Structure formats: C-alpha cells, structure tokens
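Give me the fold.
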Amino acid sequence: MIISKKIDKFDKKMKILLFDTDKNGNLVSKEDMPEFAGREDLANVLYYTKSVERQRLMEEVIKGEISPIKMFIELQTMDINDVASRMRLPVSKVKKHLTFEGFKQITIEELQKYSIIFDVSVADFFQFLILDEKVECQIKNFNERIIQKINVLTLK
C-alpha cells in the first residue's frame, strides 16, 4: 500500500456520478458535487481523519495485531458479511483471514479476489511504501493484479 506523508486536501474536482431515468425510462447520468462542497473545512477534516485512521491501521498490521484484510475492510467501511458474500466464502473463513495467523494461510487465488473487492494490487497486502511530500507515484497493475509497476516521480 502506498501512503503519502502529505495529507490530501479537498480540491473541488471531486464529483459524484448519479444515475436516474428520464421520462422514457432510459438511464441517464448526471454529475453532482459532494455534500461538503463549499465547506472545504469540513472536507479537510474528513481527509485528515482518514489519514489518521490509515496510519493507525498500518501500525496495527505492522505489529501483527490485525491482518491487511482487516485493514482494508475498515478503510473501505465494509462489513464481514458483505466481504464474505463477494468472496463467495463462509463468514467464518473471512473472520479467520482478519488475524495475522489466518492471513498467512490465504491462497493466491483468494488474495486476487480480495484485491478485486478492495480495488488494490495483491502487492498492497504485503508492503507499505511511504512517500515523502515531494514525491508521487503512478501505478499500473498487470496479470490479474499480481504484478505491479510503480513509477516514482519527484514533484517540482
């Protein structure tokens, strides 16, 4: 997982894509601003809170208190039943994967499924890359998210 030391700020570029039907029953999309548009202070508190949460979870993974699977479930505000359903696994098996000992027994195929659910690379379950504020990354995943190419760029 790549983590920047720079805390994100609300940049007014974020849009929410909504879907509705027109009078003929056709699907139409429209863009909307998030609820906190015009309230950058509120948005920045949300970004800061997420950053602190990510840091806390990373420390718990490093200490072996939780598994990377539990970290991603919490970061993405999911629940175990939803993840188990998407994985097509019993809830008990997903619960086992939440511990570090259980995580050690996960198969590559299961990691691939988790990577799709969490929209991350398989590599993100095994590493933390901490970026300085003057660096950014471009990431591309290949071969069903097993291979990851990271291009590190220095900002000017």
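DSSP finds six helices and six strands in the chain.
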